[in-house]
Every structure is written in C-alpha cells, then in structure tokens.
C-alpha cells in the first residue's frame, strides 16, 4: 500500500514538473512572439526595369527561366491585376515614391518642357518620398540602383537627399560643364568618391548592385528596422554592359544574340535576388521582413529587342509607353513569412500609388495626407480590403501625340490619345487583349470615363497637355 502511494505521489510530482516546464516554454514562446510582434517589420522593395507581365514563369513565361522568383511568388501572394504608375520609367517611379498618380505628381514623362528644350524634371521638395516617410518612422533607409527622379547637376534631388540614408545610384545626363556622364559611374552617398562598374568583373550590372545590398545588410544597425529599395536594371534594353555568358548557349543557333542576352539578364536577376534572400535567411532577419517584387512598366521594345519574341506582355496588348494593359499591368507578388498565406492569388486592382499607404500601415504610422493610394495590406493579410472607385494614368513625351490618358473602373478600361477626339472603351472581363472597342455601345460609360480623365489631371507647367484639356 505504501509503495502504491509513493508511486502515485511520484507520478503526480513528475506531471506537475512537466506541466510547469510546458507552461514555462509556452510563456517564453509567447514572450518571443510579443517581441517580434512589437518590432516593426523590415521592408524590401525589389523593382525590375521594363519587365513585362509575361516574363516570369509564375505569370506564364515558358522559355526564360526564373526558378527562384517563381518559388518566392508561390510562397506568398501573387497579384493578377497590379499596375505600374504609368508606362515609362521616370513618372512611374515618381508615382511609386510619392503615392500620387500621374495626374497629380510633378514628374509625368521622362522629360518635361522648359521653354524650347525638353529636360529631366526632379521631384518637388514638397512631395514626401517613401524614404522620407520611413526614415521619419525610425527606419534605416537604403536605395541602390536606378533613381531617375532627379537632375544630374543638382545632388539635392538625388536619393541621398530625399530620405535615403545610404544611396548608391547610377547617374547620367550632363554635368555642370555640359559633359555627358558615363552611366557606369555609381555615386555612393552623393560623394565624388564614385565607383566605376567594370563589366569584365561582374556577370551583369545587377550582380554589382546586389553586392552593395549584401554589404549594407552586414553593416546596418541590427536592432533598428530597415527599408531597402533595390532598383535593378534588368531587363532594360540599354544595359549594354553584360559580360559574355553561356546562359542559353543551347539556343545560340535559334535565337538572335540580342534575345539570348535579354533572357540571360532575366535569369541572372533571378540569381541575384536569390543571393539577397539567402543573406536575409542566414542573418535570421527573414521572418520579420516583407519582400515585394514588381516592375516599373511593361516590356521594352528597344535596341533591336522584340517584345513579342518571348511573349513578354503575356496575353496583354501593348508594351512600354502604351497605356494599353501591356504597358502598365505588371507582375507583382509579396512574401512575408507566417503573415501572408502561401500560394494565394489576388485579383485586387492595385497600383504603384498604393505602395506608400501600404508601407505606412506595415510600419504602423500614418501616410502623408492628400495622396491617391489605398493600402493593400488588408488584402495581403486576408482581411476586408477597401477598393478604388477607379485607377488613373497619363503619360507625356514630346508633341501632342505623346500625351495619353487611361482609367480603369471595375472591369471597364478607357484610353484616350490627346488629339484622337475619341475615347476607346474595353471590357477587360471578356476582352483582356483590348481588341473590341465598345465605346459606341456604351455612351454613358464613355461619358463617365471622360469625366474621370478630365478631373484627375491637374495642370503643371512642364507638361503642356496636362490638365485634362481635350476636345470631345
């Protein structure tokens, strides 16, 4: 009997000890989770240059290989209806950086008109950038790559002076003496101690840039959240400095060399982003980092490259500088371990000017007032998502024919060229390729579209066709 009682006491003691140990473990785990929850997430924004909707395997590409990006997209949320700021580099990036669409932002074309000359237009100092917003929220901020939002002879318009504490940017155009700047020169923190990109040393420009990112991640402060904006150059047609590569060597007889190099650049970018991801994983920072990948506009058709060769626009009509879907609808996915459900696909209609309020909400701060965007963080976290009444784009170049406007409301898409005296209307639900203009059938919808096109464009001096002033 004594032995039985002792056995029962022993068992109860062990059970109590195990229960206490388990409670201690759970308490410790809860404490760790609370610490992680209280710490602001790191943010990495990856921007490709001229990557079309159909140039990733996860968006239907059959020939060019992007295994890592496809894998990352499958582990996060992939957007089917995400749009760039507009259809060309500089204004699209201005939209991304300010949360203002191209009817409101200060940059609306790659160049603006100054008297009789067309020159680059910098962001206004009154326009808050992503870097400034997040730096003010206590983030370490870094920008590496293509800035394209300043003027070459005024470094107060460069990334370093617009909210990025660490900035490595290529610079081109003319210096104060009117001399052409070699775009292989990269300025680090706006200093004269610039670094020259040697294409004999690196496989591509994006390897060179990724090295800066890896170095930055090593040297930054570990107990402070960071925002890293990686502005890559792939697959821009004018990235001339590609080292000789054996990628796709089995296609040398089948493909023109310009197309083989195009495919090689995209696969090389895939490898560079894998390097960046592995660095985060090794450092233990991946779990508290959101990664967003997208492109600044649709695919290029320049420098003898044919965007149709790899079906770079997918099933969409048009390419870079078009306001048809192929010019502005771009690949976009977001990865955030344990936060974004793996393998999800979103049809939410979103765009570049939504990035600022989204990152503000991620950083648990208020976005600047009077911007045009709506945060898509609820969509990422599978919560109730507010939708836009309409999306808006415009694009400017030299001459009247270059000014175009577009809007999407629901599944309806309207496009108008300044001097056409006609607003095209398409139903994207059953005509994603925009082949059937139904404007004659739906005059009330055309009237609605014209009202949007007129009201959303505010006049600005450097863009003479701005202001929504077109003839009906």
UniProtKB/TrEMBL annotation:
It is an enzyme of class 3 (hydrolase). The keyword Aminoacyl-tRNA synthetase does not apply. Keywords: Calcium, Hydrolase, Metal-binding, Signal. Residues 1-21 form the signal peptide. It holds the Pfam family Sulfatase. SUPFAM superfamilies: Alkaline phosphatase-like. GO terms for molecular function: arylsulfatase activity; metal ion binding. Belongs to the sulfatase family. This is Arylsulfatase. It comes from Kordia antarctica. The lineage of its organism: Bacteria, Pseudomonadati, Bacteroidota, Flavobacteriia, Flavobacteriales.
């Amino acid at each position: 009997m004594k032995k039985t009682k002792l056995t029962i006491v022993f068992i109860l003691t062990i059970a109590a000890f195990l229960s206490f140990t388990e409670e201690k473990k759970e308490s410790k785990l809860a404490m760790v989770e609370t610490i992680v929850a209280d710490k602001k997430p790191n943010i990495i924004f990856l921007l490709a240059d001229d990557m079309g909707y159909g140039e990733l395997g996860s968006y239907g590409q059959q020939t060019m290989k992007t295994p890592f990006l496809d894998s990352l997209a499958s582990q996060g949320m992939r957007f089917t209806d995400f749009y760039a700021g507009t259809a060309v580099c500089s204004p699209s990036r201005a939209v991304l950086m300010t949360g203002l669409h191209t009817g409101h932002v200060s940059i609306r074309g790659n160049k603006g008109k100054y008297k009789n000359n067309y020159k680059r237009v910098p962001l206004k100092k009154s326009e808050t950038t992503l870097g400034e917003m997040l730096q003010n929220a206590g983030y370490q901020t870094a920008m590496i790559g293509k800035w394209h939002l300043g003027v070459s002879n005024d470094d107060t318009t460069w990334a370093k002076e617009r909210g990025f504490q660490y900035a490595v940017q290529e610079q081109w155009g003319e210096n104060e003496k009117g001399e052409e700047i070699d775009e292989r020169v990269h300025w680090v923190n706006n200093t004269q101690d610039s670094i020259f990109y040697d294409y004999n040393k690196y496989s591509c420009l994006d390897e060179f840039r990724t090295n800066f990112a890896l170095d930055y991640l090593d040297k930054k402060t570990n107990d402070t959240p960071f925002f890293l904006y990686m502005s890559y150059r792939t697959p821009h047609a004018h990235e001339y400095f590609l080292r000789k590569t054996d990628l796709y060597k089995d296609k040398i007889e089948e493909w023109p060399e310009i197309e083989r190099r195009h495919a090689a650049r995209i696969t090389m970018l895939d490898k560079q982003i894998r390097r960046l991801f592995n660095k985060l994983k090794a450092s233990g920072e991946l779990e508290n980092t959101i990664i967003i990948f997208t492109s600044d506009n649709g695919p290029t058709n320049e420098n003898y490259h044919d965007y149709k060769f790899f079906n770079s626009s997918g099933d969409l009509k048009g390419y870079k500088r078009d306001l048809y879907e192929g010019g502005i609808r771009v690949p976009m996915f977001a990865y955030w371990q344990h936060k974004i459900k793996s393998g999800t696909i979103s049809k939410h209609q979103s765009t570049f000017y939504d990035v600022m309020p989204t990152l503000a909400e991620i950083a648990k701060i208020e976005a600047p007032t009077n911007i045009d965007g709506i945060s898509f963080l609820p969509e990422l976290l599978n919560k109730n998502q507010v939708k836009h009444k309409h999306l808006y784009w415009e694009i400017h170049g030299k001459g009247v024919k270059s000014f175009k406007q577009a809007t999407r409301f629901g599944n309806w898409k309207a496009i108008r060229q300044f001097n056409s005296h006609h607003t095209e209307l398409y139903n994207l639900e059953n005509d994603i390729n925009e082949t059937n203009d139904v404007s004659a059938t739906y005059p009330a919808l055309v009237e609605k579209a014209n009202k949007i096109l007129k009201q959303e464009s505010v006049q600005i001096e450097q863009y003479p066709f701005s202001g929504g002033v077109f003839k009906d």
